[in-house]
Amino acid sequence: MRVGILSDTHDRVAxxxxxxxxxxxxxxxxxxxxxxxxxxxxLDHLAGLPAAFVWGNNDxxxxxxxxxxxxxxxxxxxxxxxxxxxxxxFAVIHGDDFRLKERILSEQKYDYLLQGHTxxxxxxxxGTIRCINPGALYRAAVKTVAVLDTxxxxxxxxxxxxxx
Length: 164
Description:
The chain contains four helices and eleven strands, in the order βαβαβαβββαβββββ. It is an alpha/beta fold.
């Protein structure tokens, strides 16, 4: 399964639109947003897609966003999503809760930990967990998202061009 990973949109609708198009072109079958969605308008671009997201520290009106996501059929998982995709176990957080991240890393029960928050793309192993940050669609010199193939364990960072 190819998982499209994005984060830190901060209500940048044009960036979200471009990112989703790029992830689709690269074969994404499931979409995960690692928080700081920012608005209902951003969620509109996940409508009709198999998708999930978690809260970021800049997602202010959470009850309204959660209701809107439910209407669109998008799974909102609060501060932590625990998903199984392509036979792999995923933990998804925003990254601003250091204790939660430390607990996940110490438990070592997931194949992947996806997070945003830093606006810096990264890919590293901590024990048996592969930790991936797709980068950001806002406040980053280079806007990036990522596609992960769970069958081959191949990760590809994608540059989202043409947005400010």
